Amino acid sequence: QRRGGDGIMDPQTLAIIVLLGSFALMIFMRFPIAYAVGLSSVFCLLTMGNSLNAICRLMVKGISSFPLMAVPFFITMGVLMGKGGISDKLIALANACVGWMRGGLAMVNIVASYFFGGISGSAAADTASIGSIMIPMMVDQGYDADFSTAVTITSSCEGLLVPPSHNMVIFATTAGGISVGSLFLAGYLPGAILAIALMVGSYIISVKRNYPKGEKFRFGTFLKQLSVSIWALLAIVVVVVGVEGGAFTATESDAIAVLYSLVVSVFVYKGVDWKGVWKALDECVNTLAIVMILIATSAVFGDCLTKLHVPDLAAQAIVGITDNRYILILLLNVILLVLGMIMDMAPIILIATPILLPVATQFCGLDPIQFGIMVVLNCGIGLLTPPVGAVLFIGSAVAKRPMEKVVKATLPFYLCMIITLLLVSYWQDVSLIIPKMLDGYQPVVAGLAGFLRP
What we know:
It contains 23 helices and 2 strands. The protein is an all-alpha fold.
């Protein structure tokens, strides 16, 4: 836009160019994402003639949120359970469930990731923990190393969907007015569908390559492994039932789950001693520092976007391409997938949600919870794609395999993930059927939650 015919650029347009242009330039130059977000916001505010005193106020305001207090508890719970020897127990349980199938260890890998994801909520933690055990085991049994790594990294994305997930808390806080409990419940079925899709893909490849079967299914073995693993799985019950039933807020339930995880890891499974607990807490602080500085700087970035009406302009631009609902949904997915290839998960949620959520709800008719699952799954796929695929790098490092070979082996599984994404995007009940069903049984859930109240 230009003002009149004098050739002077409109101040709003100039500020938008400075904000988004400097951000894109710094991302291209491989700046740390928090610096890129913060510095581009500073440049924008200077262009707009605003006082830089607002930056500190906005950063503090961005992290001064009661729901965000759940994030450190989620991270702590996941690290404690991961250090406490949970992986071995869940792999044994998964083996008792699906190890009898053709390509049984691949199926075990996928199901174990579903279980572990419900505890850690982190694809990176899943890949590092499950992968360090399953990849060597699969290779020893005759599975291709690249195939084993591909199964591990793609199945780790189940943990982003299966609650509790701190990324869902970040989305709920950024979107505003969304129930964390309902968002948690909405992730179960998409996570299960993703697991089934990956299992189908693994089975087809396993039959083609004649990968081995495991031992026959025995119900007694299954019950034995379930009795051992039940202590880990109950942590999920504490969080989800407690939040959805109204016994606690998301933050309170997470604090209780941390204490529960500490007791299980130290006294029940005895996988970590008190010295290991302190090391785990040190790891939590490092992870939390990264997440919170991102949230703080993104609050300033988001305020700049709002003042410049970028969400409205983006909505007009996207809707200007087409008014077809199905094409608009496809465009949203493409945008999120491209962002996932160049940015980490938390910044995408913090930056893209205020811009794309109005388009999704007003012009595509998507429920905010459904859109949240779309965002999380798109970001999960992005974690597996170069150039900034963190989980892809971790998987390659754990397996000691070249990244390009792992990417090639992952191609069939990308298709499985895209099919799941399309189901989530175009079939609303995939995300909403469980929250809707439990709304009808709210008194029952609340009664169960009452037993969890301290």
